[in-house]
Protein 1
Amino acid sequence: MQPVAKAVTTSFTVATAAARHMVERGTGVILVMAGGREAIPNLGGSHVAWAALAGLCRQLAAELGPQGVRVAWLLSPGSPKPDEPDPDATRLLLPRRPSYADVANAAVFAASDWATTMTATEINLTGSAVVD
């Protein structure tokens, strides 16, 4: 339970503190690294925590959206070390996991005015490790 309690408590505390300021301005974006719809062996409490964070994000989006605050979460299977082969790439439809820059670019997009209608949504950066 420790990973779940720690992740949810920390994310809830930070998100609600930031949301107070965003609500006053009538705009803002909360981004979280979360996910966890699929079952992955050997991840235990961490995977449950990610699923709980996705639920938290959905609830925050429902409560904050009418006040102008968007909420999204990034689903990423982790990034390979730069300039090293990705041993997990052969399992994916796209032959690579996201780089650090790929994740950062998706976060910048989600927080930008280009994504003004995106809320209560997961941004899937898994290279097909997770397919809807």
Protein 2
Amino acid sequence: MSKTKKSEFRPDDFVVYPAHGVGKIVSIEEQEVAGMKLEMFVISFEKDKMTLRVPTARATEIGMRSLASPDLVDQALATLKGKARVKRAMWSRRAQEYEQKINSGDLLAIAEVVRDLHRNDDQREQSYSERQLYEAALDRLTREVAAVAGIDASGAQKKVDEVLLARAA
């Protein structure tokens, strides 16, 4: 296997892995898999207490990306201010779409899910599955906001909550 371009990811970088959210590259190590030597990113997801190994050659192909720019975070927060767009499709279909958006790793798509599933106190209760999707999207959004802004998770949560509450007012 020939080495193409040197990867843009380095140890101690925060990265976004589509299916798991924000993680930190702990190291780059060589491992032998099925008789082949592979260079792997070792990514730690602190909140989930999980370590993931991703072949360096396939990282971008899988969808791993650097953290969003501060401008993109601002766009995502602006998306939260918009009016919820709920399609008239059956819940199972909408739930699938929300799940795909969350697992896409796209910050704006995740912000749309948070916007669409957010409920104010005066609105009807969320179903269990709605709540699960909302919390998953909110968690992904706040973790990336925290990593980009260099603040802790509670600070990021407060920032996102302020935007959602301002929308309600």
Protein 3
Amino acid sequence: MINILLSVRRPFSEKILSGEKKWELRKNAPRLNKGDSVTLWLYESGQYGTRGIIGKCRLVVTAGLRPYPPKGILEWTMKQACVTEEHLRNYLPCYVWGIQDPVRISTVPLSDIGMTRPPQSWQYLTDEQADILERRESE
């Protein structure tokens, strides 16, 4: 099992947890082997965010998106990622991370998993950090 802490700003964090946002856009992607099971832990960042780990979801696929995608791909990505065309075009090239099965948890401060600051985009978590989060989810 691979666990990743993902920094996400509002309103995107809420859109992920509601199931509306099915693709997350990132400049890079984790190196995965076929069959790897990946849990994304959502850290809500930003001025108006909770500034804590508020949920999790499964990463089911990653794919690269080139600077000039065909129109149908562009529109589909905008819908799945809950972004405007301008936002998406300004962010290309990038990766789309397909996400499923969001679960909200009671907010966990980073200090509870031994961290002092969130990742700028994302980072791997240790098994011990993930165990702490799993235990919190079941409380």
Protein 4
Amino acid sequence: MPRTELLISDCDGVIVDSEIISHRVLFESLSVHVPAQALEAALEGTFGLTTPSIIDLIEKRFDLQLGADFESDLRRLTEQRVAAEAQPIAHVREALIAIDLPLAVASNSRRHNVEASLRRAGLAERIAGNIFSADMVASPKPAPDVYLLAAERMGVAPGHCIVIEDSPTGVLAARTAGMRVIGFTGASHIPEGHDRVLRELGVSAVVGDMRELHSAIAGLMTSA
């Protein structure tokens, strides 16, 4: 088992409980164009897809053309609502401070949003500016770019990194980058049975409470 030199955490759904807010804004914005009941059915099973992929799916399903401004308006509104409403994941600050590894964040959000989330969670000092975001790479998750960038900038081989992720998209990105992954299922948007989905994607462990994170990482670091 390779030694562990770096812990990399996703942000939305791992550090802040923001994904449920993002989904709510997406639903509200799309329901202007699609009846709510039909939209709810269409969005089932889309957890983990990127927002452009979901918009494309809805446009094809309902024969819509939402226009060039829809996605940018949605992003702006989502950022506003997340900034106003999102709360830190329970016990995340204590958990990440207690782990004796360098820590970086790799997110599909833009850097200024990640910075705001880290301040809200009381983790800005712990992260020490080691933020890697979608606007820093050519392709967001599920491409491995943001994780590979984090490892490169931190001077650590991908195989020596452990990642904390909540979504299939993020798990695929980290696994493609050659990193071990701990799945997190403690955010409020997580559907029933999601731990099984993450295990099928190859995570090394799953935790549902941040108080379990330290022992999960210790287990990966000592397992043969």
